[in-house]
């Protein structure tokens, strides 16, 4: 069972569009690879918008605790505000109040309050779901807006997806990752057999690609790069190809800028399902072929044979 | 006046809008209700900061920021286990006579040091990122944070960026927030007077805008929307804003020329200087809405 | 000797739980008498550092080894500091069968000093 995680560094490079296309191709392409799908972008989960999932299970996610001051017991001494390092406690009318969005649940105030007027309350920070999508089982989640612990919710999503994949005998786990390089990304990348970095040939995209590549290297996760909107700025694409050559990172393919991707998204479908002959679809099909051959224990020849068999009249 | 620029979805154009707002204020010494003079731009997307690529600041000061983590003096430690008991993150473990610290789990709250009956714990700052401060084009004051690769927590870098780079009296502050809707975004936008949400008219853009709006509502901030890449999707986004009573303050149509300019590191105003008055107008509108909200 | 197995239900005949930090139960077994006692894992609901909390609990049980599906780097570091050996149960089966395989010396050991640069689990 192999794990493929799609990351980017910069947001908006096309991770989810690509993940949806792969999910479609893995299920309905000429060489099916049974996959469990996971949406690890728990802040802004979008994969379900193009996979038509049917929800089978939902669960609360308790992230951590939040401190709450029992107003009647508060003596207004302010020790809590003195020890809080997260600017979460403010004075109001002689008593003290905690801002739940700023509170990190450390318990410092709870331990120091001389009146023992503070309680630590576990917080439901989000929900996670097991669904059946058009192309296979999907584990996804949604963090409640403004809550924290997204890294922990990502870990939970991945654990559930991984268990499902192992128990169900799936060939692989496909994870749509979050942007950035911090905790949620680290959790998403952990244990992956391959991180596919989707980048764009822009100054910002290249800058952030370097950061995410440093991150995958730091955590010893093998990485390859895919250049989306590659024809938007050919000089940028050359720059990426050069940088990857120098670092010894494989570039698995280039996808041209194509408005069909957005059209497909508006229709709620992966672009490869919506229009398999669109330039972006053709590029994604080739990329999937190469990736799947390398990762899911099928030889390039057998993948090629599958494709040829399909294309023969 | 502090304006936070956020989005929910990544890649919608936060940095494009934040830098354009900053440049439009710097460009023109026009009088009016607010002294339109060079603002302070703080790039709070410390995991993947990009604003400096467009505004090209000359950095005058660079310094490390970090989290205070416990250091146990083994001579004084009695392995009583109190530190591990109070740690909400299991960042300390007492195993037999040994005390282990797991610094990457530590949030720097100080509870362990305060709880130790022997006073055997001191806190030492563990660097997790850097802050840089300087002056950019148009005389814009610039600050950003950069989280070190491999570090999980963006929050402390963002918090310290906002605490340690201070605007001049009366200076407009523009905060370029990270993508998403969770803790780092809240850290970036907290305390701002207005939340300007940048989105694109696609299903992903709309979905994530709804989440960002919930963040704004939780924080009780007045909000407005800028629709970037207008024309690539449909009108659902505009309908949503109307039904929610959230003003669409500007629409930037999709143009390949803008995309190409962005690709090359050119700000929107370098590609299309004619947009400057529209951004200035957005700032004036924001000022008015802040007054109304009071 | 006393060892621990992570299980899904509080029973020696329970299927083993592959997770150490968030496994449901710890069954402590005396390998000579096969007497056993099950404890719910206090770290199962921890929002973070579950492996560390679990390791602390294990250390308090005064056992010589723990058998599970895998151990994350933090748990590994903590258990090593506590002097508790770590073993992998390999193929899934009941805790009782796993203990028998342990006694027959068939289980892979992860013991030894902390391994630097181990990949975080996911």
Any overview of this molecule?
The complex is a heterotrimer of chains A (313), B (294) and C (122). Chain A is of the alpha/beta class. In chain A, the strands form 2 sheets. A 9-stranded mixed sheet of chain A has the order 3-6-7-2-8-1-9-10-11, with helices on both faces. Helix content of chain A is 38%, strand content 26%. Helices cover 35% and strands 27% of the residues of chain B. Chain B has 11 helices and 11 strands. A 9-stranded mixed sheet of chain B has the order 3-6-7-2-8-1-9-10-11, with helices on both faces. Chain B has a two-stranded antiparallel sheet with strand order 4-5. In chain B, α1 (14-27) crosses α11 and α5 (155-164) runs parallel beside α6 (183-189). The longest helix of chain B is centred in the C-terminal third of the chain and has 18 residues, at 276-293. Chain C is of the alpha/beta class and 122 residues long. Chain C has a single domain, classed as Nucleotidyltransferase, domain 5 (2-Layer Sandwich), CATH 3.30.420.130. Chain C has helices at 50-60, 73-81, 95-103; strands at residues 2-7, 25-30, 36-40, 65-68, 85-88, 108-109. In chain C, strands 3-2-1-4-5-6 form a 6-stranded mixed sheet, sandwiched between helices. In chain C, β4 (65-68), α2 and β5 (85-88) form a beta-alpha-beta unit. Chain C is globular. The termini of chain C are far apart. The model of chain C is unreliable at 112-122 (pLDDT under 50). Chains in contact: A-B, A-C, B-C.
Tell me the series of helices and strands of chain B, N- to C-terminal. EHEHEHEEHEEHEHEHEHEHHH
Derived from helix and strand composition plus strand pairing, the structural class of chain C reads alpha/beta
Helix content of chain B: 25-40%
Global outline of chain B: elongated
- Ranges of chain C with pLDDT <50 over ≥5 residues? 112-122
How far apart lie the N and C ends of chain B?
13 Å
- What's the number of domains of chain C? 1
Number of strand elements of chain C: 6
Contiguous low-pLDDT stretches of chain B (5 residues minimum) are 31-35
Number of helical elements of chain C: 3
Shape of chain C: globular
**Termini Cα gap of chain C:** 32 Å
C-alpha-based Rg of chain C, rounded: 13 Å
Q: Indicate the CATH topology of the largest domain in chain B.
A: Rossmann fold
How many domains of chain B, as an integer? 2
The helix-strand sequence of chain C is: EEEHEHEHE
Structural class of chain B: alpha/beta
């Amino acid at each position: 069972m192999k794990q493929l995680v799609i990351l980017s560094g910069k947001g908006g490079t096309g991770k989810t569009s690509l993940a949806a296309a792969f999910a479609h191709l893995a299920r309905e392409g000429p060489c099916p690879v049974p996959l469990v799908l996971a949406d690890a972008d728990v802040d802004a989960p979008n994969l379900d918008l193009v996979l038509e999932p049917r929800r089978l299970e939902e669960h609360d996610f308790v992230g951590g605790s939040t401190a709450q001051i029992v107003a009647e017991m508060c003596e207004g001494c302010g020790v809590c505000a003195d020890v809080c390092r997260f600017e979460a406690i403010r004075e109001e009318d002689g008593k003290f109040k905690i801002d739940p969005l700023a509170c990190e649940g450390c318990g410092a105030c709870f331990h120091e309050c001389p009146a023992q007027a503070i309680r630590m309350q576990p917080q439901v920070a989000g929900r996670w779901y097991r669904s059946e999508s058009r192309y296979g089982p999907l584990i996804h989640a949604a963090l409640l807006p403004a809550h924290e612990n997204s890294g922990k919710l990502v870990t939970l999503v991945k654990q559930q997806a991984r268990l499902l994949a192992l128990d169900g005998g799936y060939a692989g786990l496909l994870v749509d990752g979050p942007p950035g390089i911090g905790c949620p990304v680290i959790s998403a990348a952990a244990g992956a057999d391959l991180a596919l970095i989707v980048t764009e040939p822009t100054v910002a995209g290249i800058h952030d690609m370097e950061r995410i590549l440093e991150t995958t290297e730091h955590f010893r996760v093998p990485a390859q790069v895919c250049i989306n909107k590659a024809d938007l700025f050919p000089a940028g694409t050359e720059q990426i190809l050069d940088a990857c050559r120098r670092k010894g990172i494989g570039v698995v393919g280039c996808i041209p800028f194509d408005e069909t991707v957005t059209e497909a998204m508006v229709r709620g479908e992966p672009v490869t399902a919506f229009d398999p002959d669109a330039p972006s679809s053709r590029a994604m099909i080739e990329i999937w072929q190469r990736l799947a051959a390398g990762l899911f224990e099928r030889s390039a020849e057998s993948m090629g044979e599958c494709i040829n068999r399909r294309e023969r009249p | 006046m502090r304006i936070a620029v956020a989005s929910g979805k990544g890649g919608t154009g936060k940095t494009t809008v934040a830098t354009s707002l900053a440049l439009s204020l710097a460009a023109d010494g026009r009088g009016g209700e607010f002294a339109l003079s060079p603002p302070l731009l703080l790039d709070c997307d410390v995991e993947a900061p990009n604003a400096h690529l467009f505004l090209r600041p000359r950095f005058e000061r660079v310094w490390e920021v970090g989290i205070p983590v416990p250091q146990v003096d083994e001579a004084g430690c009695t392995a009583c286990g109190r530190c591990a008991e109070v740690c909400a993150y299991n960042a300390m473990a007492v195993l037999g006579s040994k005390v282990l610290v797991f610094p990457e789990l530590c949030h720097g709250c100080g509870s362990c040091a305060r709880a130790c009956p022997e006073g055997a714990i001191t806190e030492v700052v563990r660097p997790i990122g850097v802050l840089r401060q300087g002056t950019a084009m148009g005389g814009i004051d610039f600050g950003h944070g950069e989280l070190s690769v491999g570090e999980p927590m963006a929050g402390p870098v963002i918090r310290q960026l906002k605490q340690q780079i201070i605007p001049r009296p009366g200076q407009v502050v523009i905060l370029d927030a990270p993508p998403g809707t969770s803790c780092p975004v809240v850290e970036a936008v907290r305390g701002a007077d207005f939340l300007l949400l940048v989105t694109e008219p696609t299903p992903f853009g709309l979905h994530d805008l709804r989440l960002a709006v919930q963040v704004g509502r939780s924080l009780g901030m007045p909000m407005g929307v800028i629709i970037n890449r207008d024309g690539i999707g449909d009108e659902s986004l505009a309908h949503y804003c109307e039904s929610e009573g959230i003003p669409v303050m500007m629409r930037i149509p999709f143009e390949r020329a803008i995309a190409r300019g962005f690709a090359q590191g050119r700000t929107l105003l370098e590609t299309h200087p004619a947009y400057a008055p529209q951004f200035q107008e957005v700032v004036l509108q924001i000022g008015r809405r802040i007054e109304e909200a009071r | 000797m006393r060892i621990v197995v992570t299980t899904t239900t509080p029973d020696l005949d329970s299927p083993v739980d592959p997770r150490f930090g968030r496994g449901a139960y710890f069954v402590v077994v005396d390998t000579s008498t096969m007497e056993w006692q099950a404890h719910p894992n206090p770290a199962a609901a921890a929002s973070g550092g579950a492996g560390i909390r679990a390791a602390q609990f294990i250390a308090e049980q005064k056992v010589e080894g723990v058998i599970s599906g895998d151990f994350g780097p933090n748990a590994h570091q903590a258990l090593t500091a506590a002097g508790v050996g770590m073993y992998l149960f390999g193929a899934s089966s009941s805790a009782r069968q796993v203990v028998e395989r342990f006694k027959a010396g068939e289980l892979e050991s992860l013991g030894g000093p902390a391994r630097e640069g181990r990949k975080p689990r996911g």
